[in-house]
Structure to design on (1028 residues):
């Protein structure tokens, strides 16, 4: 069934449209200035570039805070292809905080690795802009453009240590598999456009709702599932995860810190907007057709990620597999997001769970990766488990915060990770999907093994005669990042009402 | 009383002290230890004051008669409340909690404890968590403290103690996490099913939850459990692992063997009692019908714990492992009292929780003193301490007599009351549990004779008796063993009302299930 595309009246970007993308514009301005500054600033003073990037991120964050109050109610801008709503702004805030923390730990690390080039900060900002666009995109075209923008920046960043083979390998692998995934994404979009005649989410949703419940258009469903595969690749959910460990391990650690968190955040934001709020199908219960697939991918991710993490001996790979597992937990929230309760009301528990989990994951995972970024010695990464042995005896506070992050990743209260898991499990049980929650529980028990094993190692003394890893100094910026992430992990674990209320308000404001 | 949030203070004082401790320079070990003692003492003083006020403070009319209560909104969106309360049962556990942590703080050895400030921080954080467990009336809050307790405990147990502490700690954590995550699912299930849509125990109890239809396995048409029964099983598993009840006990001997004595004072003293408390507070109130239905099975496992623990205690040679298995046996008694579902049994369990906390703390302190002096815990290498350490001999004699249930000592009161309850359940259980008491006399006397009376061996040559301070730690414990043995009434006076209310929840449920 092909619906003739009706011409959409084009409007010139007026003031209201520009306001809608103000955060992206400000960050874009900072990006351009950074490119110019890089040309005039001497190589020895490149830390200034980090300062400027941080300033740009902070200014954008200020704009986001202002926009939070302005975008109530939100609106669609640029002829319905971008949403200026609280949902996007909530996600923007997580992205900006993450990017800011990463920029803070970068200069020292890059200097020690001898790869301190100015493009680094520009690329981080470019990727962040792409992610912010993805969070607000309400048109298939914008979604694709945003994903390409963020991906290309990340391809370059993962190969940033260009004299190192592992980094090059990571970049190449990421590029090839990323291109492959983009193909899925585009093919899915093409099928959806072919079946509905629209690229804008609102009209696609209307087209789905106009279908009868009895027969489902197989091509449309194929398009939806292909689109999901594209996203699943970006959030590194199993079985589309094979690139993750290699890329995370090969890329410079500061880049891994950045992309392990922000890519997931942005892609999950898009998943929520596209799947939970567009492909739910309203009264037609269209979601029943794709929801089992999402649930299956969630279970696969939890099982594969947690089991594979057990056997790792590299911290970066362990955290990569842990990230795959975490993607599985967050997917539970997506899978049960649009479910109608027996009472007839639809529940936003799952989606709030996704948002809370993302915030918790961002602060925790950045903290954990920040520790191995900051502690990395001169000219090498801190990668093997042995490198962490005895850390607690030399750096008790760094080790204690790392232990806290590991507990949070494992989902222990009173840390952020607990409430993330709690909310998605509650959503699953609330939706009657108890088995999904039980899979989550079973794999969580497994995860306790490997998180605690790393924790144990930090508190052990090195074997007699064995050399200790030469950890770097924490430095002022490093300490600030660790204090911020530690505090964030605890605050999100105890005073849940703050972020919960914001997440819930952002969902109320979500427009498609 | 009126405007001071005493209950919150009980949690905030240790937690805040843990933070303030970081301001004291690391090398001032005396100040660090002094501050820790001060904080735990402050908690103990408040608990004592609350206990004294308690009879004058009329209990609330809710499903759980709370004498003290604090309620604040915590996460209104999902009806999770910050609801703390004390009733007659938790009051005694709080007293025990404050006591064993004070003792644990006093027992810290400044000379031999590496990284003292960090150690004290973790002890205080553990106290904040266990106090929270005992005070929480909201299920989610309870879970937060219950699981959060593992964080300081993990760091504590993995940093200090014997060589095998790493694997033993992970075993303990993974066991506990498996149980408590299942309980989390059950908590969420109750929340979703409860008409009140709340995590607050009192709100959930106010409106009954339907047990749902039982799952039927297709083809063979085997009717299995109802969803509510499954939720009950999840709760029971979590608590049974913590107590622990045989066959879920395997983490305990390894952990007790490798943990330092000063940690064991509060670990064995209160942490393992929290499982028993959980059964009384949550499993009994939320699932009276299910408890009634499975009481014979549960009591069977409790009796198995009594006998198995006693037999293993007889066969071990390591002092700590003997005490660990003896502890399993005694905890089996507590569990049996609870599962008898009678006023006697549960009252006895409450008394015995307190008693066992006192006795096990004393025993682990004594084992610690012996090990510190002789460098071994092997019963084969130790003997003749009677002549070398007359004071230790005296304290150990009282503690072992109390432990084996000598009339006139505290354990006798508790175990006797529990046996009364067990008889009301079924005489077979009571007779088997009585066998456990006989075995207890056997293994305690074997331990006592081997350690004290046989001719001295090389290891015990030239061993010095307890110092004054060490003896002083044991004096209050021994005094309590005798005092409670002679005057148990104050404990039952306080707990009786709450126990009666809890048992009355079971009776109507039993009659309901009988008619269906």
């Amino acid at each position: 069934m092909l619906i003739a595309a009706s011409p959409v009246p084009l409007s010139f970007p007026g003031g209201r449209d520009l306001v809608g993308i103000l955060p992206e514009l400000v960050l874009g301005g900072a990006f351009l200035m950074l490119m110019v500054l890089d040309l005039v600033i001497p190589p020895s003073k490149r830390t200034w570039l980090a300062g400027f990037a941080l300033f740009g991120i902070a200014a954008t964050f200020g704009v986001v805070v202002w926009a939070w109050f302005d975008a109530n109610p939100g609106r669609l801008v640029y002829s319905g292809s971008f949403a200026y709503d609280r949902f996007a702004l909530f996600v923007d805030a997580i992205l900006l905080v993450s990017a800011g923390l990463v920029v803070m730990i970068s200069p020292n690390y890059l200097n020690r690795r001898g790869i301190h080039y100015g493009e680094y900060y520009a690329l981080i900002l470019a990727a962040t802009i792409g992610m912010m666009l993805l969070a607000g995109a309400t048109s298939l075209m914008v979604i694709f453009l945003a994903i390409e923008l963020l991906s290309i920046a990340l391809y370059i960043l993962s190969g940033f240590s260009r004299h190192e083979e592992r980094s090059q390998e990571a970049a190449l692998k990421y590029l090839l598999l990323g291109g492959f995934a983009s193909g899925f994404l585009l093919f899915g979009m093409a099928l959806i456009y072919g079946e509905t005649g629209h690229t804008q989410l609102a009209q696609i949703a209307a087209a789905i709702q106009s279908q009868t419940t009895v027969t489902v258009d197989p091509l449309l469903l194929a398009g939806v599932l292909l689109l999901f595969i594209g996203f699943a690749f970006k959030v590194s959910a199993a079985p589309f995860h094979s690139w993750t460990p290699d890329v995370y391990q090969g890329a410079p650690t500061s880049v891994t810190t950045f992309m392990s968190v922000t890519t997931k955040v942005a892609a999950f934001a898009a998943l929520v907007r596209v799947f939970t709020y567009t492909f739910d199908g309203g009264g037609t219960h269209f979601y029943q057709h794709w929801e089992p697939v999402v649930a299956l991918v969630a279970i696969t991710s939890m099982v594969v990620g947690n089991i594979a993490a057990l056997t790792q001996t590299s911290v970066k790979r362990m955290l990569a597999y842990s990230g795959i597992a975490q993607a599985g937990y967050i997917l539970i929230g997506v899978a049960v997001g649009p479910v109608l309760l027996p009472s007839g009301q639809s529940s936003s528990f799952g989606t709030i769970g996704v948002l809370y989990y993302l915030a918790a994951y961002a602060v925790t995972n950045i903290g954990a990766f920040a520790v191995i970024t900051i502690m990395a010695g001169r000219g090498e990464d801190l990668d093997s488990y042995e490198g962490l042995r005895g850390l607690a005896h030399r750096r008790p506070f760094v080790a204690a915060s790392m232990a806290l992050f590991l507990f949070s990743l494992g989902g222990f209260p009173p840390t952020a990770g607990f409430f993330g898991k709690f909310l998605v499990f509650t959503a699953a049980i609330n939706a009657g999907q108890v088995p999904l929650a039980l899979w989550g529980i079973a794999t969580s028990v497994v995860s306790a093994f490997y998180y605690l094993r790393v924790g144990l190692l930090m508190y052990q003394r090195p074997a007699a005669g064995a050399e200790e890893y030469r950890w770097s100094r924490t430095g002022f910026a490093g300490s600030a990042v660790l204090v911020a992430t530690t505090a964030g992990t605890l605050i999100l674990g105890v005073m849940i009402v703050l972020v919960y209320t914001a997440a819930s308000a952002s969902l109320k404001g979500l427009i498609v | 009383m009126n405007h001071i949030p005493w209950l919150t203070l009980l949690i905030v004082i240790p937690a805040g002290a843990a933070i303030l401790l970081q301001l004291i320079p690391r090398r001032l070990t005396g100040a660090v230890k002094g501050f820790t003692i001060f904080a735990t003492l402050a908690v103990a003083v408040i608990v004592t004051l609350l206990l004294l006020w308690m009879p004058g403070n009329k209990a609330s009319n809710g499903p759980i008669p709370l004498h003290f209560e604090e309620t604040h909104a915590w996460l209104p969106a999902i009806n999770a409340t910050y609801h703390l309360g004390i009733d007659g049962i938790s009051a005694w556990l709080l007293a025990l909690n404050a006591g064993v942590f004070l003792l644990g703080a006093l027992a810290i050895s400044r000379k031999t404890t590496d990284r003292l400030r960090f150690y004290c921080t973790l002890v205080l954080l553990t106290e904040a968590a266990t106090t929270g467990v005992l005070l929480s009336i909201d299920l989610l809050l309870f879970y937060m403290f219950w699981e959060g307790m593992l964080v300081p405990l993990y760091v504590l147990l993995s940093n200090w103690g014997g060589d095998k502490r790493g694997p033993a700690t992970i075993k303990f954590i993974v066991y506990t996490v498996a149980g408590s995550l299942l309980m989390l699912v059950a908590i969420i299930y109750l929340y979703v099913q409860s008409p009140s849509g709340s995590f607050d125990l009192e709100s959930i109890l106010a409106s009954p939850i339907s047990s749902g239809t039982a799952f039927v396995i297709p083809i063979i048409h085997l009717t299995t459990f109802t969803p509510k029964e499954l939720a009950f099983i999840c709760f029971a598993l979590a608590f049974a692992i913590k107590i622990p009840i045989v066959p879920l006990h395997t983490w305990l001997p390894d952990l007790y063997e490798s943990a330092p004595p000063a940690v064991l004072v509060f670990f064995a003293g209160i942490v393992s009692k929290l499982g028993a408390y959980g059964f009384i507070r949550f499993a009994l109130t939320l699932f009276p019908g299910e408890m009634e239905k499975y009481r014979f099975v549960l009591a069977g496992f409790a009796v198995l714990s009594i006998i198995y623990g006693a037999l293993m205690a007889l066969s071990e040679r390591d002092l700590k492992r003997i005490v660990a298995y003896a502890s399993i046996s005694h905890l089996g008694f507590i569990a049996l009292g609870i599962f008898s579902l009678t006023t006697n049994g549960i009252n006895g369990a409450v008394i015995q929780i307190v008693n066992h906390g006192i006795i096990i703390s004393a025993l682990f302190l004594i084992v610690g003193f012996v090990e510190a002096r002789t460098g071994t815990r092997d019963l084969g290498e130790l003997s003749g301490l009677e002549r070398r350490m007359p004071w230790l001999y005296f304290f150990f004699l009282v503690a072992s007599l109390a432990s084996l249930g000598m009339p006139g000592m505290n354990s006798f009161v508790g175990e006797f009351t529990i046996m009364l309850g067990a008889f009301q359940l079924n005489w077979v259980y009571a007779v088997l549990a009585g066998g456990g008491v006989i075995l207890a006399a056997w293994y305690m006397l074997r331990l006592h004779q081997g350690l004290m009376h046989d001719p001295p061996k090389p290891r015990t040559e030239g061993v010095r008796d307890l110092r004054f301070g060490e003896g002083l730690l044991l004096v209050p414990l021994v005094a309590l063993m005798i005092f409670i043995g002679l005057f148990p009434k104050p404990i039952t006076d306080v707990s009786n009302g709450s126990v009666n209310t809890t048992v009355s929840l079971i009776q109507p449920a039993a009659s309901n299930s009988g008619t269906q």
Notes: Residues 511-516 of chain B have pLDDT under 50 and may be disordered. Residues 343-374 of chain B form the longest helix (32 residues). Chain B is about 70% helix and 5% strand.
